[in-house]
Amino acid sequence: MSGNLPETSDQAEQSIFDFFKNKSQSGVRYFTAFISSAFNLKKPISGQINKIYNKKKAGIKLGFEENNIFFTWLLYSYLEALKNLGSPAQFVIGAYWARQGMKYGESYVWNNHQLSLDLVTVFKDFPKVSMSLMYASLSMAQEFTIIARMLPNVSLLGFWWHTLIPNIIEQIISQRIESLPANKWIAIATDAYSVEWAYGKVSLVLHCLAKVLSQKIEEGYFTEKSAIEYARRILYENPKEIYKLEKE
Description:
It is built from eight helices and seven strands; from the N terminus they run αβααβββαβαβαβαα. The protein is an alpha/beta fold.
Protein backbone atom coordinates (compact mmCIF):
# COMPACT_ATOMS: atom_id res chain seq x y z
CA MET A 1 0.00 0.00 0.00
CA SER A 2 1.42 3.36 -0.98
CA GLY A 3 0.35 6.93 -1.58
CA ASN A 4 -2.45 8.47 0.42
CA LEU A 5 -3.82 5.68 2.58
CA PRO A 6 -7.50 5.54 3.57
CA GLU A 7 -8.26 7.02 6.95
CA THR A 8 -8.95 3.73 8.77
CA SER A 9 -8.13 0.04 8.34
CA ASP A 10 -11.83 -0.66 7.67
CA GLN A 11 -11.79 1.88 4.84
CA ALA A 12 -8.59 0.30 3.53
CA GLU A 13 -10.26 -3.11 3.43
CA GLN A 14 -13.15 -1.61 1.53
CA SER A 15 -10.79 0.06 -0.95
CA ILE A 16 -9.07 -3.31 -1.54
CA PHE A 17 -12.43 -4.93 -2.25
CA ASP A 18 -13.52 -2.07 -4.53
CA PHE A 19 -10.26 -2.28 -6.50
CA PHE A 20 -10.63 -5.98 -7.29
CA LYS A 21 -14.36 -5.65 -7.88
CA ASN A 22 -13.73 -2.96 -10.49
CA LYS A 23 -11.03 -5.07 -12.14
CA SER A 24 -13.33 -8.09 -12.18
CA GLN A 25 -16.18 -6.09 -13.69
CA SER A 26 -13.82 -4.79 -16.38
CA GLY A 27 -13.18 -8.38 -17.53
CA VAL A 28 -10.15 -9.55 -15.52
CA ARG A 29 -10.75 -13.26 -14.89
CA TYR A 30 -8.18 -13.94 -12.17
CA PHE A 31 -5.43 -12.28 -10.15
CA THR A 32 -1.79 -13.19 -9.45
CA ALA A 33 0.10 -12.32 -6.28
CA PHE A 34 3.70 -12.94 -5.23
CA ILE A 35 4.25 -14.31 -1.73
CA SER A 36 7.75 -13.62 -0.47
CA SER A 37 9.66 -16.38 1.29
CA ALA A 38 10.13 -13.83 4.08
CA PHE A 39 6.40 -13.93 4.80
CA ASN A 40 5.58 -15.02 8.34
CA LEU A 41 1.96 -15.63 9.24
CA LYS A 42 0.92 -13.51 12.21
CA LYS A 43 -2.79 -12.92 12.63
CA PRO A 44 -3.74 -9.72 14.45
CA ILE A 45 -5.66 -9.95 17.70
CA SER A 46 -8.64 -7.71 18.43
CA GLY A 47 -7.91 -4.04 17.76
CA GLN A 48 -4.24 -4.66 16.98
CA ILE A 49 -4.43 -3.95 13.27
CA ASN A 50 -5.97 -0.52 13.89
CA LYS A 51 -2.94 0.58 15.93
CA ILE A 52 -0.50 -0.83 13.39
CA TYR A 53 -2.38 0.68 10.46
CA ASN A 54 -2.38 4.09 12.12
CA LYS A 55 1.40 3.86 12.62
CA LYS A 56 1.82 2.91 8.96
CA LYS A 57 -0.39 5.79 7.86
CA ALA A 58 1.61 8.19 10.02
CA GLY A 59 4.83 7.08 8.35
CA ILE A 60 6.23 5.44 11.48
CA LYS A 61 8.51 2.47 10.78
CA LEU A 62 6.91 -0.81 11.85
CA GLY A 63 8.77 -3.41 13.88
CA PHE A 64 9.39 -6.96 12.67
CA GLU A 65 6.30 -8.47 14.29
CA GLU A 66 4.17 -5.48 13.32
CA ASN A 67 5.22 -5.94 9.68
CA ASN A 68 4.22 -9.61 9.82
CA ILE A 69 0.83 -8.68 11.26
CA PHE A 70 0.36 -5.95 8.65
CA PHE A 71 1.19 -8.18 5.68
CA THR A 72 -0.93 -11.04 7.06
CA TRP A 73 -3.83 -8.61 7.31
CA LEU A 74 -3.25 -7.43 3.72
CA LEU A 75 -3.16 -11.03 2.45
CA TYR A 76 -6.37 -11.92 4.28
CA SER A 77 -8.08 -8.73 3.05
CA TYR A 78 -7.08 -9.66 -0.50
CA LEU A 79 -8.39 -13.21 -0.18
CA GLU A 80 -11.59 -11.99 1.46
CA ALA A 81 -12.16 -9.77 -1.58
CA LEU A 82 -11.58 -12.69 -3.96
CA LYS A 83 -13.91 -14.89 -1.91
CA ASN A 84 -16.69 -12.31 -2.22
CA LEU A 85 -16.07 -12.01 -5.97
CA GLY A 86 -15.88 -15.77 -6.53
CA SER A 87 -12.48 -15.36 -8.17
CA PRO A 88 -9.59 -17.88 -8.03
CA ALA A 89 -6.27 -16.78 -6.51
CA GLN A 90 -2.98 -17.48 -8.28
CA PHE A 91 0.25 -17.32 -6.26
CA VAL A 92 3.89 -17.39 -7.36
CA ILE A 93 6.33 -18.48 -4.66
CA GLY A 94 10.01 -19.14 -4.03
CA ALA A 95 11.98 -16.51 -5.97
CA TYR A 96 14.18 -13.60 -4.92
CA TRP A 97 14.51 -10.65 -7.30
CA ALA A 98 14.11 -6.90 -7.74
CA ARG A 99 16.03 -6.13 -4.55
CA GLN A 100 18.52 -3.34 -3.98
CA GLY A 101 21.84 -4.06 -5.69
CA MET A 102 20.38 -6.61 -8.13
CA LYS A 103 20.45 -6.08 -11.89
CA TYR A 104 17.40 -6.25 -14.13
CA GLY A 105 16.58 -9.91 -14.74
CA GLU A 106 18.76 -11.13 -11.88
CA SER A 107 16.92 -13.65 -9.66
CA TYR A 108 17.49 -16.59 -7.35
CA VAL A 109 15.68 -19.45 -5.68
CA TRP A 110 14.66 -18.59 -2.13
CA ASN A 111 13.27 -21.42 -0.02
CA ASN A 112 11.61 -21.10 3.35
CA HIS A 113 10.05 -24.37 4.37
CA GLN A 114 8.12 -22.76 7.22
CA LEU A 115 6.26 -20.84 4.53
CA SER A 116 4.48 -23.96 3.27
CA LEU A 117 3.08 -24.63 6.76
CA ASP A 118 1.97 -21.02 7.14
CA LEU A 119 0.23 -21.20 3.77
CA VAL A 120 -1.62 -24.36 4.79
CA THR A 121 -3.27 -22.24 7.50
CA VAL A 122 -4.09 -19.50 4.99
CA PHE A 123 -5.56 -21.94 2.46
CA LYS A 124 -7.65 -23.69 5.11
CA ASP A 125 -8.99 -20.33 6.29
CA PHE A 126 -10.41 -19.72 2.77
CA PRO A 127 -11.83 -23.09 1.68
CA LYS A 128 -14.15 -21.46 -0.87
CA VAL A 129 -11.29 -19.71 -2.73
CA SER A 130 -9.54 -21.77 -5.40
CA MET A 131 -5.79 -21.41 -4.82
CA SER A 132 -3.46 -22.05 -7.77
CA LEU A 133 0.26 -22.28 -6.96
CA MET A 134 3.36 -21.87 -9.12
CA TYR A 135 6.78 -22.17 -7.47
CA ALA A 136 10.37 -21.55 -8.51
CA SER A 137 12.17 -24.41 -6.78
CA LEU A 138 12.34 -28.19 -7.23
CA SER A 139 12.94 -28.51 -3.49
CA MET A 140 9.47 -27.03 -2.87
CA ALA A 141 7.75 -29.46 -5.23
CA GLN A 142 6.97 -32.24 -2.78
CA GLU A 143 5.72 -29.84 -0.10
CA PHE A 144 3.21 -28.17 -2.39
CA THR A 145 2.25 -31.41 -4.12
CA ILE A 146 1.23 -32.79 -0.73
CA ILE A 147 -0.64 -29.59 0.07
CA ALA A 148 -2.55 -29.85 -3.22
CA ARG A 149 -3.34 -33.50 -2.46
CA MET A 150 -4.61 -32.71 1.03
CA LEU A 151 -6.59 -29.51 0.46
CA PRO A 152 -9.58 -29.52 -1.94
CA ASN A 153 -9.18 -25.84 -2.86
CA VAL A 154 -5.48 -26.00 -3.83
CA SER A 155 -4.08 -26.91 -7.24
CA LEU A 156 -0.66 -26.60 -8.88
CA LEU A 157 0.15 -24.49 -11.90
CA GLY A 158 2.80 -24.99 -14.55
CA PHE A 159 6.49 -24.27 -14.05
CA TRP A 160 7.92 -20.93 -12.93
CA TRP A 161 11.32 -19.33 -13.49
CA HIS A 162 14.07 -21.60 -12.15
CA THR A 163 12.13 -24.82 -12.71
CA LEU A 164 12.28 -24.22 -16.48
CA ILE A 165 14.93 -26.91 -16.96
CA PRO A 166 13.92 -30.07 -18.88
CA ASN A 167 15.15 -32.51 -16.23
CA ILE A 168 13.37 -30.60 -13.46
CA ILE A 169 10.15 -30.27 -15.46
CA GLU A 170 10.16 -34.01 -16.13
CA GLN A 171 10.71 -34.83 -12.44
CA ILE A 172 7.84 -32.57 -11.39
CA ILE A 173 5.48 -33.94 -14.06
CA SER A 174 6.23 -37.51 -12.98
CA GLN A 175 5.72 -36.60 -9.32
CA ARG A 176 2.39 -34.97 -10.01
CA ILE A 177 1.16 -37.87 -12.13
CA GLU A 178 2.01 -40.33 -9.38
CA SER A 179 0.82 -38.20 -6.44
CA LEU A 180 -2.19 -36.13 -7.51
CA PRO A 181 -5.67 -36.69 -8.89
CA ALA A 182 -5.73 -35.70 -12.55
CA ASN A 183 -7.84 -32.59 -11.87
CA LYS A 184 -5.37 -31.04 -9.39
CA TRP A 185 -2.83 -29.40 -11.68
CA ILE A 186 -2.39 -27.43 -14.89
CA ALA A 187 0.53 -28.19 -17.19
CA ILE A 188 1.11 -24.83 -18.85
CA ALA A 189 1.14 -21.30 -17.46
CA THR A 190 3.42 -18.35 -18.07
CA ASP A 191 4.07 -14.81 -16.91
CA ALA A 192 6.00 -14.17 -20.14
CA TYR A 193 6.24 -10.63 -21.48
CA SER A 194 6.23 -11.64 -25.15
CA VAL A 195 4.62 -14.14 -27.50
CA GLU A 196 8.06 -15.48 -28.47
CA TRP A 197 8.93 -16.33 -24.87
CA ALA A 198 5.51 -17.89 -24.27
CA TYR A 199 5.94 -20.04 -27.40
CA GLY A 200 9.32 -21.30 -26.21
CA LYS A 201 8.01 -22.18 -22.77
CA VAL A 202 4.95 -23.99 -24.16
CA SER A 203 7.13 -25.97 -26.57
CA LEU A 204 9.49 -26.99 -23.76
CA VAL A 205 6.71 -28.14 -21.44
CA LEU A 206 4.91 -30.06 -24.21
CA HIS A 207 8.16 -31.84 -25.13
CA CYS A 208 8.76 -32.83 -21.49
CA LEU A 209 5.15 -33.91 -21.02
CA ALA A 210 5.26 -36.13 -24.12
CA LYS A 211 8.50 -37.70 -22.91
CA VAL A 212 7.16 -38.48 -19.44
CA LEU A 213 3.85 -39.82 -20.73
CA SER A 214 5.73 -42.08 -23.18
CA GLN A 215 7.80 -43.44 -20.29
CA LYS A 216 4.65 -44.06 -18.25
CA ILE A 217 3.14 -46.00 -21.18
CA GLU A 218 6.28 -48.14 -21.45
CA GLU A 219 6.15 -48.82 -17.70
CA GLY A 220 2.50 -49.87 -17.94
CA TYR A 221 1.33 -46.93 -15.82
CA PHE A 222 -0.82 -45.60 -18.69
CA THR A 223 -2.31 -47.05 -21.84
CA GLU A 224 -1.97 -44.85 -24.93
CA LYS A 225 -5.64 -43.92 -24.62
CA SER A 226 -5.45 -43.02 -20.92
CA ALA A 227 -2.26 -40.99 -21.52
CA ILE A 228 -4.05 -38.91 -24.16
CA GLU A 229 -7.01 -38.44 -21.84
CA TYR A 230 -4.68 -37.38 -19.04
CA ALA A 231 -2.92 -34.86 -21.29
CA ARG A 232 -6.25 -33.36 -22.32
CA ARG A 233 -7.21 -33.03 -18.66
CA ILE A 234 -4.08 -31.10 -17.58
CA LEU A 235 -3.77 -29.06 -20.77
CA TYR A 236 -7.40 -28.14 -21.40
CA GLU A 237 -10.06 -29.33 -18.96
CA ASN A 238 -8.34 -28.22 -15.74
CA PRO A 239 -7.61 -24.62 -16.84
CA LYS A 240 -11.20 -24.33 -18.06
CA GLU A 241 -12.62 -25.57 -14.75
CA ILE A 242 -10.19 -24.04 -12.22
CA TYR A 243 -10.13 -20.61 -13.88
CA LYS A 244 -13.80 -20.70 -14.87
CA LEU A 245 -13.06 -20.18 -18.55
CA GLU A 246 -16.27 -21.72 -19.86
CA LYS A 247 -18.18 -19.45 -22.21
CA GLU A 248 -20.89 -17.57 -20.37
